[in-house]
Design goal:
mainly alpha, 7 helices, 73% helix
């Protein structure tokens, strides 16, 4: 998958406000996407990032039980965004299964979930000294592009 520079920057800017847990600036960043195509490109990237991180965290495709554990953590940590553990689990299960995201989630909730779940997964991962979530995102994006 080739990642468009404009999409990458808008996604990173928006993820910044997710990691900072700033609802007002997160909402403003979501509104900054110029059109439906930009939103869809961001969603495609976020799904790829979330899928990669989920597999990386577990060393393989996570089981539904492993996803439930993560979803509980995300539900607790990301309450500022009104994300429930159930929604996070539905989103992550759809990502790892390759199922349509809107099968059991509304299109509006998918966008918020994509950003919040990806941001939470990126920022909660233990990092070596001096590295941050965006350093890990660099590695994830490089792997996604290398995979084609």
């Amino acid at each position: 998958m080739k990642i468009d520079d404009g999409t990458e920057q808008r996604v990173r800017d928006t993820l910044h406000w997710v990691v900072r847990r700033d609802l007002g600036k997160f909402d403003a960043a979501l509104r900054s996407f110029p059109d439906q195509a930009a939103q869809e490109a961001a969603l495609t990237l976020l799904v790829a990032v979330s899928g990669f991180v989920l597999i990386d965290l577990h060393g393989a495709k996570p089981t539904p039980q492993q996803i439930d554990v993560l979803a509980e953590e995300i539900g607790r940590m990301e309450g500022w965004a009104s994300i429930t553990a159930g929604e996070a689990a539905l989103f992550m299960n759809a990502v790892v299964e390759g199922s349509p995201l809107t099968k059991r989630l509304t299109p509006e909730s998918v966008v918020v979930l994509a950003f919040v779940v990806a941001g939470s997964l990126l920022s909660a991962r233990p990092m070596p000294e001096g590295e941050w979530w965006f350093n890990y995102l660099d590695k994830v994006e490089a792997a996604i592009e290398a995979a084609g």
